TrEMBL record:
Residues 257-346 form the M23ase beta-sheet core domain. Keywords: Coiled coil. Residues 1-42 are annotated as: Disordered. It comes from Streptomyces roseolilacinus. This is Peptidase.
Length: 363
């Protein structure tokens, strides 16, 4: 430490161009050519306070501004290192050298030689110099706190952006899944409806086919029955023409309508038994002329009227197709014909034409 003693004052006088005192300025001194003043630590007044010259390392001055830029860069580097274990979110930081006023501090002059000690790759490794004053240390600590807060905000924003991106992706995936499920459900419903329609059409076709088969079977059975009946039944006469049918109205009949079937044929045409049976009566019957009543096994009676002659008698048994008389014009008639009536076992008259056709005969 320097002494606080007062330094001796140098004599006042005149000096030459290189700072040497002249003889005229110092009468008691030695000649100027042999005298030289060399100041020493004891002859110099001590300077109070601490003064230092900051050495620039590679053009980087230790100042609060540059230290703040370093902290920001370190925060960005630390944030990116921390975010390596998370999905990357694009965060851009400006280049420190592009900030106004920072490039000159970092780069230095073009003719300035670089420092022997290279700048550290990670600016976060910079530390405060032991020579810095308390004010610089406090400022650096405040700036470090601000940088840490900025880093925390950047990480928070990155987390928020990541969470938002994940939420949007999840919502999009859920929407796509819902749309896909709706399409699949609609397709399944359409397929089910198509299957139901096809099944209904198939069922209708099967029902129609069954009905056709049943109708065909019924027609076949009826045809077989009629064929069997036709083998056991015969037409009452031949070479005939139908001139009047059952129920036909007219004044020429006493009941007001025709009660039988008129088959016009030449006189003498054979009248045949339509089925095997027993002759119930044979003789004259007023307006019916000569009449033969043939009773069948089920009690049905067949009346043959207006005959010209009869070839059977009451109580006689006949077979299908046997001749029982001949066509004539006896009784109340206008010409030769066979008047045929059919009566049920109860005595009521029915349509002979329908009855004959019901037995399989073609009339």
């Amino acid at each position: 430490m320097a002494s606080n003693r007062p330094a001796p004052e140098a004599p006042f006088g005149s000096y030459d161009t290189i700072g040497h005192p002249t003889a005229s300025g110092f009468p008691d001194a030695a000649p100027a050519a042999t005298s030289e003043w060399n100041p020493t630590e004891d002859t110099i007044r001590p300077v109070r306070g601490r003064h230092r010259v900051v050495k620039q390392r590679g053009g980087l001055a230790r100042s609060s501004t540059v230290l703040g830029v370093g902290v920001i860069a370190a925060v960005g580097a630390g944030g990116m290192a921390t975010a390596q274990d998370k999905p990357r979110v694009a965060i851009s930081l400006p280049d420190a050298s592009s900030l106004p006023g920072v490039g000159a501090l970092l780069g230095g002059g073009a003719d300035e030689a670089p420092d022997e000690t290279p700048a550290p790759a990670n600016l976060a490794a910079l530390t405060l110099s032991a020579e810095s004053g308390p004010a610089d240390a406090q400022g650096a600590g405040a700036e470090a706190d601000a940088g840490e807060a900025l880093r925390a905000r950047i990480l928070q924003q990155a987390d928020q952006q990541q969470a938002s991106a994940e939420a949007e992706a999840r919502a999009a995936a859920e929407k796509a899944a819902a749309e896909k499920a709706a399409k699949e459900a609609a397709a399944q419903q359409a397929a089910a409806e198509a299957d139901a329609k096809a099944a209904a059409a198939k069922a209708r076709a099967a029902e129609e086919e069954r009905e056709r088969a049943e109708a065909k079977a019924a027609a076949k059975a009826e045809a077989e029955r009629l064929a069997e009946l036709a083998a056991s039944y015969a037409l009452p006469t031949s070479s005939y023409t139908i001139t009047s049918t059952y129920g036909q109205a007219g004044s020429m009949w006493s009941s007001g309508y025709h009660t039988g079937l008129d088959l016009a044929a030449p006189t003498g045409t054979p009248a045949n038994a339509v089925h095997s049976g027993t002759v119930k009566s044979a003789g004259w019957s007023g307006a019916y002329g000569y009449r033969v009543v043939l009773e069948l096994e089920d009690g049905t009676e067949i009346w043959y009227c207006h005959l010209s002659s009869m070839t059977v008698g009451a109580g006689q048994t006949v077979g299908t197709g046997d001749t029982i008389g001949r066509v004539g014009a006896t009784g109340n008639v206008t010409g030769p014909h066979l008047h045929l009536e059919v009566h049920t076992a109860s005595g009521g008259g029915i349509d002979p034409l329908a009855w004959l056709r019901g037995k399989g005969l073609t009339v």
